[in-house]
């Protein structure tokens, strides 16, 4: 169920999505409020699960992670035991930035960030040594055109 948010809550969330490192004073100024009501609303949204966590976005290429692969996985295995092992294998690999179970011909899609093609191959070899998959297709992203974690509030 969607949380009930008013216009001020939404403005606060837009500011936090833009830069969660800014001070409460700055957020309050930008949303046309004062510090205490902003702090109370942020606290309430954290407690209500609207705000899950605050983190820092790093520049992958600046840190040497120049290759981004989208990995399409088809499997003939659908038992709970296989699925648990597969999900654990994904959680154990920091290269996997996103993983989604899909409807349609492809069962899973992964976003995998690595330094280069050799690093992707090492990831791939490790994954298939742990869990059986029917078919894997890796697509190398040539250029990131848009990337955001901000929701359209």
Task: Give short descriptive properties of this protein.
alpha+beta, 4-stranded antiparallel beta sheet, Alpha-Beta Plaits, elongated, 4 strands, 5 helices, 2 domains, Arc Repressor Mutant, subunit A
Distance between the first and last residues' Cα: 16 Å
Question: SSE order, as H and E?
Answer: HHHEHEEHE
Domain module tally: 2
Count the helices. How many?
5
Q: For the largest sheet, list the strands in their spatial order.
A: 2-3-1-4
Approximately how much helix is present in the residues? 25-40%
Name of the CATH class of the largest domain: Alpha Beta
Gross morphology is elongated
Q: Compute the average pLDDT.
A: 96
Q: Roughly how many Å is the radius of gyration?
A: 20 Å
Q: Helix/strand-derived class?
A: alpha+beta
Q: In CATH terms, what is the fold-level topology of the largest domain?
A: Alpha-Beta Plaits
Taking pLDDT < 50 over at least 5 consecutive residues as the criterion, the unreliable ranges are none
**Largest sheet, if any?**
4 strands, antiparallel
Secondary-structure arrangement, i.e. CATH architecture of the largest domain: 2-Layer Sandwich
Proportion in β-strands: 15-25%
User: What is the CATH homology-level superfamily of the largest domain?
Assistant: Lrp/AsnC effector binding domain/regulation of amino acid metabolism (RAM) domain
GO molecular function: sequence-specific DNA binding
Organism: Aquicoccus porphyridii
Pfam family, one: AsnC_trans_reg
Keywords: DNA-binding, Transcription, Transcription regulation
